[in-house]
Amino acid sequence: MPIPQALVTRYFQLIVNRQFTESERELERVKQKMQKTEWNRGYFRALYGMLLLRKNNTADDYAFFTKLDLSDKVSLHAYRKEFLEHMRNGLHGDFDRGYFSAWADCMRILTRMDIPSPQNGNGKAVEEEKIETLRSDKSQATIANFLQKSEDE
Question: Which structural domain, as residue segments, surrounds residue 95?
């Protein structure tokens, strides 16, 4: 029996809205509906880990979910594609594929939710610093960024 997507969707909505008591109940319902397979075990572990990360309000530098901009639909879609690739990869075991499937489902649901941009103390949306990147490598900033910062100081 597959995992009911309505329960999972509700679960993601609850953890995004930081309704932890209700999300724990929903997670328990999901667990009761699951069969005991390695894939489902990985899926459940991912769901449980997401809850723990949202509940623990510290900014962990290594935690993916804490760094995630929930209002950036383009990034969420790209992450979903990446998680789906891992899920379909035959080199991963069933546990890992279930784990990545939960993350892909999470990204799918987050892209459909209307989540506002993070706000600063004044109630205005926080603007991220624009970084110019090379056309061929989006992870590399240009020297213009460095020079701009040195002139500002």
Answer: 5-118
